[in-house]
Amino acid sequence: MKRITDLQGSFELHNGVQMPYFGLGVYQSEDGNEVINAVKTALNHGYRHIDTAAIYYNEEGVGTGIRKSNVDRKDVFLTSKVWNTDQGYDSTLKAFDASLERLGTDYLDLYLVHWPKGELSKETWKALEKLYKEKRVRAIGVSNFLRHHLEDLLTSVEIVPMVNQMEFHPYLVQQDLVDFCNSNGIQYQAWSPLMQGNIFDLDIMKDLTLKYNKTIAQIVLRWDLQKGVVTIPKSSKKERIVANSDLFNFELSEEDVQLLDGLDKGKRFGPDPDNFDF
């Protein structure tokens, strides 16, 4: 098991970059005060990892939140993603520049291909490799790539992706994909770790809250970390941002990790990487 220590702990990517294993996701956080306050709250509470994307339309607010926090930019692990309509070599380079401008920074810590688009994503990846070689981004990766997408991409890369960000929760473990990523040095990362709120309806989770005296969210997020998966729960509420990060004074038993693994139904709450139309 990878070592889990505290809110500012990290997993090492295959290029040696330290990626904080816990962060704030800002999907559907409205640009302006909502996302500014969420980012500022998270950073001032001890978070060091913020995940956004061009298609979230809140990069400007994220950048403002970082600047208004008590944390230097160099101490924040900042991720964004290239959207599908910008995929391709030249258009990805332009999209990257546009993201930097909105965020008000001159580099990213991680830049991801947001969704797999076949041959087009290979051109996109070449652009990411260029940005990486130019040291404009510290790490590059993909999002929503299933095993066959990764295998196809790997036939043409110079640099193996450092991260694969996937929908990941007890109803969608995809252990084969996790194992494939681990065996290729690709760090697995969870989006929608709380099943878009559906996790709170599971009786088995309520039983675990009594056993560990922790919230359902804390138990699931701790499970992510114990499985070696970076996780970025989304919240814009101060109390929840603080509570979500209270994960470092307990540990799930191996039996309970396996219990949660066993809930896997292959069920998605988000789009299917093999069948989406955007």
Automatic annotation (TrEMBL):
What name has this protein been given in UniProt? Methylglyoxal reductase (NADPH-dependent)
Molecular function via GO: methylglyoxal reductase (NADPH) activity
Catalytic machinery residues: Y56 (proton donor)
Judging by the UniProt lineage, the source's domain of life is Bacteria
Q: What is its EC number?
A: 1.1.1.283
Q: Which PANTHER family match?
A: 2,5-DIKETO-D-GLUCONIC ACID REDUCTASE (PTHR43827), NADP-DEPENDENT OXIDOREDUCTASE DOMAIN-CONTAINING PROTEIN (PTHR43827:SF3)
Residue(s) at site: Lowers pKa of active site Tyr: K81
Q: Where is the NADP-dependent oxidoreductase domain?
A: 31-264
Q: Which organism is it from?
A: Allomuricauda ruestringensis (strain DSM 13258 / CIP 107369 / LMG 19739 / B1)
